[in-house]
């Protein structure tokens, strides 16, 4: 087929402009990315070779330099690409990954030091070569019988050309024509240094020719393997250095963080497998972008790579993990789809989950500061397991951490610490959910708890109230929302008697207020929940909280119409004042305004919008005028 010149898509051009015209602190990563692409291609070919005999099997990534022409070439004998695949997927960036990469940079306001790490996360690695390239030429041939090789060429300006080519072997050759300021990448020592740093754990040999001068002044070429090719997960824990862990983690995760904890597993018996799993220190940029975040661990079978996204190896609430599982029992001669339905994967997942949860528990007990750092980063994801994993629910409850009313800002406590600090007379674990600690601290619903010295857990993650549907109890103590239903503390009987007496005394006033606020309010009643504030809104036991209603509305979800309860502090001087107005004239128009003001005040204190801000403002202004004239 004749050659064609094609324009880059707008988003790809944007990406190339970033690569070509910006200065990056770490240009070395273009070699890392090209080697990673080559290894991925070999992984695919190696898997196909299990059932297809004609595919080459002498796997290797070969690097060659030409100092005269200032080129570095990285070649593989992997799966290769057809012409259509080159147009569609070259560098795995021609789809939405490019937009996601650029969006992440804009949202995070990434510095030039961040960009090389983002490159790996969003699969735009091939185009990192334009950081150093005047021109890039890619020649590839699909590992299929009678396939046609193709050549892709671009200077990264605005277009690329693609044409048929001659190539005898399967795989891909990438030739990078280096800019004048990038000629250091023609030096063997520099290439070797980069490979050892980033690609030492690639399973296939990464080779580079070295010219050796003999004693008789003749020269011979020696092909050296630059990487160790050691399957790090097969080593014993004592044999792996911290630097090796960091390097392997970087290879797996493609982002700039470091591992917080390495978890190594060697399972024997009915299910045999080796695993090396990392708990990251920080979440990657794309962690909360599900379309671009890989979920699952890398799966190998007897050191043969199967897939880098085996979702069945870990539960979804542990999706922040990255690592490798190498099984001795799983079959090789089946498709990836059938493989992932194998019941052995479920057994491996159980082992991995128990081990990881156990290591997190050890960290929580022995390295609390380190665990707190982890939980602030990934706690909202881990807590999903309380709702999703009934088998390990109690273990995950032990790992959950929360701020509370009695702790200083930023400090978190476990459920065990909360229960251990409870007074003997306290029957339930109290919590309140909201958008932030600051908003919750000012909630009138906490006044009685504060007066009794009773702590209340602050649940500020959007997921918390959803999780509470499955929480039920901890250490035989049931959970109780501080702003739902009735509150029963140590002097409940005395409080109930006072509330009952006040309700009888002011029965007509309460009925009047309820009538004025219908149908927004289900009931107006006195409460022992308040010590200083005049009123607050609460929900029935089991109903949606105001916080949850606001979250649903923010997501454009339909929220069922629920009537709230307006609770009034019987000891507040406002009650006697309102009673005086009512006694003078039970039909006084002021009662309607005062009822609306009470309701709006309660809405404001819980963080909900008031239905008529203008009317609220007018009513407050009228009260101010009356107070000033007096």
Descriptors:
Four Helix Bundle (Hemerythrin (Met), subunit A), six-stranded mixed sheet, 630 residues, nine-stranded mixed sheet, alpha+beta, 3 domains, Ribosomal Protein S5, domain 2, 22 helices, Heat Shock Protein 90
Write the layout of secondary structure elements.
Elements: E1 4-7, H1 10-21, H2 29-48, E2 61-66, E3 71-76, H3 83-89, H4 97-108, H5 115-121, E4 133-141, E5 149-154, E6 159-165, E7 171-178, H6 188-198, E8 206-213, E9 219-225, H7 242-253, E10 259-267, E11 273-280, E12 297-301, E13 304-310, E14 322-327, H8 336-339, H9 343-366, H10 368-382, H11 384-388, H12 393-399, E15 401-404, E16 413-414, H13 415-420, E17 428-433, H14 437-441, H15 447-452, E18 457-459, H16 464-471, E19 473-474, E20 477-481, H17 492-505, H18 507-517, E21 521-526, E22 535-538, H19 546-554, E23 564-568, H20 573-584, H21 590-606, H22 613-629
Parallel strand pairs: 2-8, 12-14, 17-18, 17-20, 21-23
Antiparallel strand pairs: 1-6, 2-3, 3-7, 4-5, 4-7, 5-6, 8-9, 10-11, 11-14, 12-13, 15-16, 15-18, 19-20, 22-23
Helix pairs in contact: 9-10, 9-12, 18-21
């Amino acid at each position: 087929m004749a050659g064609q010149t094609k324009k880059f898509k707008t988003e790809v051009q944007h990406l190339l402009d970033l690569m070509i015209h910006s200065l990056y602190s770490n240009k070395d990563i273009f070699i890392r990315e090209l080697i990673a692409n080559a290894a991925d291609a070999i992984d695919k070919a190696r898997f196909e070779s299990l059932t297809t005999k004609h595919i080459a099997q002498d796997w290797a990534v070969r690097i060659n330099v030409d100092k005269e022409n200032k080129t570095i070439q990285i070649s593989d004998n992997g799966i290769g690409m057809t012409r259509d695949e080159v147009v569609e997927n070259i560098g795995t960036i021609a789809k939405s990954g490019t937009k996601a990469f650029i969006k992440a940079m804009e949202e995070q306001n990434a510095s030039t030091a961040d960009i090389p790490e983002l490159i790996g996360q969003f699969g735009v690695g091939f185009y990192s070569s334009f950081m150093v390239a005047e021109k890039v030429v890619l020649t590839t041939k699909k590992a299929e019988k009678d396939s046609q090789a193709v050549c892709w060429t671009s200077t990264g300006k605005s277009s690329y050309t693609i044409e048929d080519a001659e190539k005898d072997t399967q795989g891909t050759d990438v030739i990078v024509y280096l800019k004048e300021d990038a000629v250091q990448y023609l030096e063997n020592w520099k290439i070797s240094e980069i490979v050892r740093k980033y690609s030492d754990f690639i399973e296939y040999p990464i080779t580079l020719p070295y010219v050796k001068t003999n004693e008789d002044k003749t020269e011979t070429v020696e092909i050296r393997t630059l990487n160790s090719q050691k399957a790090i997960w097969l080593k014993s824990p004592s044999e792996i250095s911290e630097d090796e862990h960091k390097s392997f983690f970087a290879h797996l995760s493609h982002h700039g963080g470091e591992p917080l904890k390495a978890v190594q597993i060697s399972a024997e018996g009915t299910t045999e497998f080796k695993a090396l799993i990392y708990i990251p220190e920080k979440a990657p940029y794309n962690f909360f972008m599900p379309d671009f975040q890989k979920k699952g661990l890398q799966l190998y079978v007897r050191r043969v790579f199967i897939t880098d996204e085996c979702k069945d190896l870990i539960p979804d609430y542990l999706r922040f993990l990255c690592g490798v599982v190498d099984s001795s029992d799983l079959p090789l001669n089946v498709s990836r789809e059938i493989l992932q339905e194998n019941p052995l994967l479920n057994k491996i997942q159980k082992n991995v989950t128990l081990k990881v949860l156990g290591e997190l528990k050890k960290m929580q007990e022995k390295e609390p500061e380190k665990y707190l750092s982890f939980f602030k980063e990934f706690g909202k994801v881990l807590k999903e397991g309380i709702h999703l994993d009934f088998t390990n629910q109690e273990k995950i409850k032990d790992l959950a951490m929360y701020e509370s009313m009695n702790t200083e800002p930023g400090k978190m406590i476990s459920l065990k610490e909360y229960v251990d600090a409870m007074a003997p007379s306290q029957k339930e674990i109290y919590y309140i959910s909201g958008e932030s600690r600051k908003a919750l601290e000012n909630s009138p619903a906490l006044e009685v708890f504060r007066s009794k010295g009773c702590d209340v857990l602050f649940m500020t993650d959007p997921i918390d109230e959803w999780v509470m549907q499955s929480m039920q109890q901890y250490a035989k103590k049931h959970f109780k929302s501080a702003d739902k239903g009735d509150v029963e503390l140590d002097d409940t009987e005395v409080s109930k008697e006072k509330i009952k007496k006040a309700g009888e005394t002011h029965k007509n006033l309460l009925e009047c207020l309820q009538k004025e606020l219908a149908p927004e309010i289900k009931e107006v009643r006195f409460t022992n929940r308040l010590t200083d504030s005049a009123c607050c809104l609460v929900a029935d036991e089991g109903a949606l909280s105001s916080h949850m209603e606001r979250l649903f509305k923010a997501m454009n979800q339909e929220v069922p119409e629920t009537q709230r309860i307006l609770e009034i502090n019987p000891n507040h001087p406002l009650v006697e004042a309102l009673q005086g107005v009512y006694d003078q004239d039970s039909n006084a128009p002021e009662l309607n305004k005062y009822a609306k003001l009470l309701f709006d005040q309660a809405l404001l204190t819980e963080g909900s919008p008031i239905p008529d801000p203008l009317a609220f403002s007018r009513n407050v202004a009228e009260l101010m005028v009356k107070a000033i004239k007096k």
